[in-house]
Design a protein that fits this description.
By secondary structure, the protein is of the alpha+beta class. It has helices at 20-23, 26-31, 78-86, 99-107, 115-118, 171-174, 215-219, and strands at 35-43, 49-54, 57-62, 65-74, 88-93, 123-124, 133-134, 139-149, 157-169, 187-190, 194-195, 200-201, 205-208.
Length: 224
Amino acid sequence: MKREISMDTAELLYENWQGQFDTFSHMEFACAIPQSLFLISTLKENGLPNLCFHSWSCFGGDEGGYFAVMQNISHTSHTYENIVRDGEFCINFISADYYPNCIATIVDNSNDCDEFASGHFTPEKSVKVKVPHLKQAFMSLECQLACNVDLSRKGISSMIIGRVLHASIEEKYIEGVDLRYGQQGFMFNIHEPADFATGQLKDTHVAALEVLGSYPEMKNKPMK
Ligand SMILES: Cc1cc2nc3c(=O)[nH]c(=O)nc-3n(C[C@H](O)[C@H](O)[C@H](O)COP(=O)(O)O)c2cc1C
């Protein structure tokens, strides 16, 4: 049996805080699709480095370029302001070991705060953009703003698309695949998944990937 969920059925779910289903669609919690988690680095207007812990994204491209698509960058964030002003940013993938450091960059988030310092991160010079990336990141993507669209037209958040200009990848992470796709690799956000039995949203969880097999191994398995 399947549960049918329309855009009108938010009343089946309870917000954890007032206005939660305005800031996020209730579908976010009904579907609770895991999203990779990373830090966006930008520069504040005063030149201090800024970090934003971010999920909701996808990556892809063709011969004409490789693009980082980030839905839902909040219009009230420094990151949005910095990207719109400077037209550039870096995406930094770090392992879940750094989760508390990422949260520290949210707690201390003022204009006069060096957020690399508050997260105990080390800045590393980028190749194509002024914004520094993180030494602790196993992969950083230097991006130029390509597109800024307010998908819901509510003035709450924007989909920001960055054209990737350069990537820096830690060598031991590209020798084989184990590190990138294990507990020391990409980190994922499971955002308050809804329990429809009670209507409550559960805690946010943090996840990493478990590789199940190679393409040849998987395609040769007996069909279900
Ligand atoms: C797990 C997690 C994921 C987050 N994902 C996003 C996101 O995708 N977009 C966003 O705008 N804020 C997101 N946030 C909130 C920002 O990290 C937070 O508002 C931050 O302080 C913004 O920093 P800034 O004002 O320096 O840009 C997330 C927070 C957490 C804890």
